[in-house]
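Review box. Two proteins, two foldings.
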Amino acid sequence: MSIISTARDRGKKTQKPNSLVPATRIFSSTAPTPEPLSPAPAMSSSTAPAPAAAMAVDDAEDDQLASMSTEDDIRASRLLDNEIRVLKDELQRTNLELESFKEKIKENQDKIKLNKQLPYLVGNFVEILEMNPEDEAKEDGANIDLDSQRKGKCVVLKTSTRQDPKAENPNEMVTAGVLSSLQNFLRKCLIASLSYGPMPKHIAFIMDGNRRYAKFRSMQEGAGHRMGFSTLIASLMYCYEMGVKYITVYAFSIDNFKRDPSEVESLMQLMEEKINELLENQSVINKIKCKINFWGNLDLLYEPVRLAAEKLMASTAGNTGLVFSICMPYNSTSEIVNAVSEVCAERMEMFQSEHIGDCNGHAANNGVRSEISVAELDRHMYSAGCPDPDIVIRTSGETRLSNFLLWQTTFSHLQNPDPLWPEFSFRHLVWAILQYQRVYPALEHNRKLAKKQL
């Protein structure tokens, strides 16, 4: 029996006779009775009603589901179980990753909180001498202690002023010690990494921005230069740790004598004070075998400053380690003029000692050469015996040399970091060396070409 015939038979069983009740006129009692309507013809099998067709489709689906085997049901159930298991595993993995991200966010927040307590990541603390931990030292801002009698390790460069060391929290002191050790370790790691590239032998600094630093912070006159001296000592030790052999700084220009007399007087007093400190405490200088030179016309200095500078040069003349040259009072024009004058004086002395030519002047130029070679000028420069600077660093973002080492900086790499000199730190020095290493091949190529042309 087919599905269609079954549906037709089912429709016949449920079908009722189609009869109508005769209607009468309500308002007329004499109205004729209408004839009864004839019954409707039976519906054929091809014109089955719509509900019957829908029921037939449902019955067909039920028959199809009933025909499915039990194995197919089991197979479909297993597939669904596997998919559910995979989704559960994926959800669990996502939850684990979310927990991991939460832990990383927490760690980063802790690091950010820690970094806010530090002015820089590395380089603001430096170990440069030995001292007894039991000794008490007074710290004034960024003062440097150079006492030769103290033994043991000491952090001598501070970024803040202690008012009362006894009143400090012991936990804070322990934290500061841990952070200091961490900074020293990171600094040594950075220096070791830098050493794989070409390292500069000579770095020159134009210490610009001391006055602006004090002005921006409403500090007293001369306070910016004192802070700058602390930065100088720290930079000197950083360069020593990196293996830089020569350090030159532009401390005082001849043009600076044109400034206000009170400012010049203050600078001269500061120079005398710091030079005398180095004379009284030479343990660090002798430890690193530092040789100190003063380049410039020392006759222009105040008498006490000049005598102290000459004494310091004499006391370190025998050292063979780091060469630290201080340009004061100096400018490059004066240096070149002085070199030419010395060459001329040397020629005249040679003429007088050897009696070259005759007294009547018959020999051309009396036997004295009129030309001056580059090698002769190099020999009479203040920087004689010192290689040309590889890097010239001028702080405060200025891009001019200000008449500093014009003869020696033809192939030097000029760096102009934005911070003022008292703000200059280890990270700025590292960045300058990285930039130098990047352009080193081009600098060497230009130097070789210049040597071939001479």
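Next protein.
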Amino acid sequence: MLAVMAVCWHHSARAADSLFYAPPPPSDDSVPFSAAIELGYTALSGNTNTETLLGKGRITWYDQAWTHTTRAEVKNVRDSENTTAEQYLFSQRERYSLGDSPNYLFGLARYEKERFSGYDNQFTTIVGYGRQLFDTDLQALSLEAGPGYRFDDYENGGSRHMLLGYLAADYSLSLSDTASFIQQFSVEGADDNVTLRSYSAISVSINSSLALRVSHDIKSNSNPPREADAHTDRTTAASVVYNF
């Protein structure tokens, strides 16, 4: 038996889709504050018994040229009473729009804690430059890049400081009056380690308040610690989204 449940609350459809990266700057009709909360639960029983709990939250507020975004995520997976995945993430993003141009500056601070990854926790800070290449009713694309710093605290008790380079892309496409697609991708490269992140999702609106969404989230580490169970984590989710 497979059961999937998700609830999402938000004020802005585009902002709610942009949990992965900083949302675009406010438009003339945007509210000064928006928020999103998403809860998901998946249970599989039969030959195997697994449970997955997902939780995401975002708060965004605008102050003239500034866009401030706070985000939190949690994921827990249990297989036959044993925890096989446990992840926590908290981040703060700042975006400063450069006048009426499509260019902006950004800053990011992110804390991650993930069991079975070989790390006890990771703390990353990034600053850089971004550009909104286009933003129409049909599609939107933004690119950003910059230098960063990461502190890795390992499960075995060691730690390491490193510099990194950051590249990211955020694309959205309106498939029809009721369907949309988003693809978000980032690369964080250090001297002996590259972290890739990808988020893909298709949403279909049933009515003004209800939508169905299918998403696929990937995080890949090219050179994880020896204690890590795998190089790549993948999460596929089907959810029901309620908007009000």
